[in-house]
Amino acid sequence: MASRKGGVSLPERRGSKAEGNKNGIISRFYQSSAVTRGREAASNAVFVSKKLLRSTGKAAWIAGTTFLVLVVPLIIEMDREQQLNELELQQASLLGAPSVGPPLK
Known about the structure:
This protein has helices at 25-30, 33-95. The chain is rod-shaped and about 105 Å long. It is mainly α. The protein has a domain at 26-95. The chain contains two helices and no strands.
């Protein structure tokens, strides 16, 4: 009995590199200057987009943390002051004191 070694060999495809046919329509298309410039433009667009996205993320982080550190405490303090003013007006009206309004001109 003879033993087999190896697998099934398939016929070469048309236009493959094994035949040495480098002048096919598809290979000429991919080697054209328009395709090359298009690839370069796409590569540059991806690079710029990544840089822009990264810098936008950094700017958003800076703006968000600044807002949390500076603006939120200010809003909380203004709300407390407003509540305190309302409480004083309620107490004054309950005690019968005349309400203090804006001065008349």
